[in-house]
């Protein structure tokens, strides 16, 4: 299943996972998201696990940014694995 480069990273990842796992795709995914630092300068960290394997990690100054970048990395890793 191909995805448009204009897709939101988490949407594109979800579409790829749906193509691999079908309707049970979200049963295979787990996120760890947390922040560190002072309240006025938080750094968010996001890790996405697929079948308990780390497929993407990112740090960013916003929660959504960290999740988007982790999803982008996970999508890249999935596309390499499921060519």
Strand content: 25-35%
Succession of helices and strands: HEEEH
Structural Rg: 13 Å
Give the end-to-end Cα distance, rounded to a whole number of Å: 10 Å
Mean pLDDT: 92
Categorize the overall geometry: elongated
Query: Number of DSSP helices?
Result: 2
**Any low-confidence stretches, pLDDT <50, length ≥5?**
none
Spatial sequence of strands, sheet with the most strands: 1-2-3
Structural class: alpha+beta
Number of strands: 3
**Major sheet:** 3 strands, antiparallel
Give the proportion of residues in helices.
Answer: 25-40%
Give a verbal description of the structure:
It is a single chain. The chain has a 3-stranded antiparallel beta sheet. The protein is an alpha+beta fold and 83 residues long. It has helices at residues 9-21, 63-81, and strands spanning 29-36, 43-50, 53-60. The protein is 39% helix and 29% strand. The longest helix has 19 residues, at 63-81.
Concise overview:
The protein is 39% helix and 29% strand. The chain is of the alpha+beta class.
Write the layout of secondary structure elements.
Blueprint: H1 9-21, E1 29-36, E2 43-50, E3 53-60, H2 63-81
């Amino acid at each position: 299943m191909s995805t448009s480069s204009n897709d939101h990273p988490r949407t594109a990842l979800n579409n790829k996972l749906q193509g691999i796992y079908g309707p049970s795709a979200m049963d295979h995914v787990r996120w760890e998201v947390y922040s560190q630092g002072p309240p006025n300068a938080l750094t968010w960290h996001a890790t996405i696990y697929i079948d308990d394997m780390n497929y993407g990690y990112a740090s960013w100054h916003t929660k959504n940014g960290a999740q988007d970048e982790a999803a982008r990395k996970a999508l890249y890793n999935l596309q390499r694995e499921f060519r």
